[in-house]
Amino acid sequence: MSTEYDLVILGGGTGGYVAAIRAAQLGLKTAIVEKSKLGGTCLHNGCIPSKAMLKSAEVFRLVREEADEFGVKTGEVSLDFSQVQKRKHQIIDQLHAGIQSLMKKGKIDVYHGFGRILGASIFSPMPGTISVEMGNGEENEILLLKNLIIATGSKPKTLPGLEIDEHQVLTSDGALNMEALPSSITIIGGGVIGIEWASMLIDFGVKVTVLDRLEQILSTEDREVALAMQKALAKRGVTFILGADIMTDSLHKEDSQVIISYQLGEETQSISSEKLLVSVGRSPLIDDIGLANTEIQVENGIIQTTKTYQTKDQHIYAIGDVIGGLQLAHVAEHEGIYAVDHIAGMQREPINYELVPRCVYAFPETSAVGLTEQQARERGLQVKVGKFPFKANGKALVNGHSDGFVKILVDQQSDDIVGVHMIGSHVTDLISEAGLAMVLNAIPWEVSSTVHPHPTLSEAFSEAALAVDGLAIHM
To answer: Helix 223-236 to helix 192-203 angle, to the nearest 10 degrees?
Structure first.
């Protein structure tokens, strides 16, 4: 059986379903092919479930360690991890139902099965027709199309020699589905995902060690912010072993323990824990989707596209994690919208990836947009730095979380803001103002001239803008 569409999207994750909604708004007959559930990794195995669990960890820490400071007497506090998981699933289910409703609203056809790209055939003189394996003995659906968007997402990377069993040796997928908390865990990788897990699990009372071959956690972020994060987590009990050459072939299991060795300088040492979490990034999911039937070019596992997200077969587009770059849900969304607008013949400015906000949802949170101080200097920019601590912010003191700061980098020559970096409570909710300021080419004076309500955390951004020229009021 075959059906014709203006656009078929292979993959129903964040980038895919947002692109479908945009296409429906523009009047394109649209279909999504999704092998699992709409919402993809972000909704089911990434952003949403991990943030739900981080919130539970935050509340547990607050009640157990901080309530007394607010004058609240709680008595003995315990954790019901099954309720943590139940709440997580309730949030996922609600959002999943919402996406399904949006598909019906947009009259978007959804095919639940494995989609594979066919080459030129009797169905079409061009490659791109999708064959959907429906399973359960059903006949394949054939989707004829004018345009195709590949948005199949990614999966957790592994390391050679580390056999993942999702029981003792985990990826983030397995960690999200733990039925009980371990007494101890070793996390390989000090990037965003590893640090969020370290923060969550230490707050749940798990003994946490972070192993990384690099000397800096959050290696893509501003060094000052990364050091502040390391210090904050170490204060709560996380052990960091950085600059370690991890010997993946040394992994072995004894009783209920996982043991792995690493070389630090001239010494070889081992660490034992109940579970091992491998958190070393994500790999595009492009295996067996029929790329060999097309002219699409792949380098280092990444689909190559133009600035308009077209592949070498110009009617086939690719967005999100499969094209590398910033593997973030909000990036995939905007790439999907851009690709659909291009299909519809609309002219848009290309996405400026340096203006994409980046967030880490640990405690404390970090957020950033633009260049780090190190990157700015490597480009030969002479930068002025404005920095304001949350210890001087009334709302931060009221909230009981006054560690951290806002840091603004300004090009001395143009007075343009080239980077903003924050660490502290709720800073992931503050970074959008900084992003807007940079999109509009605002200078520090314009930021500080914007009236910020008092008392709010946002005042720290205004004060940091004043601090660029040594004019901060409350410091």
So the answer is: 20
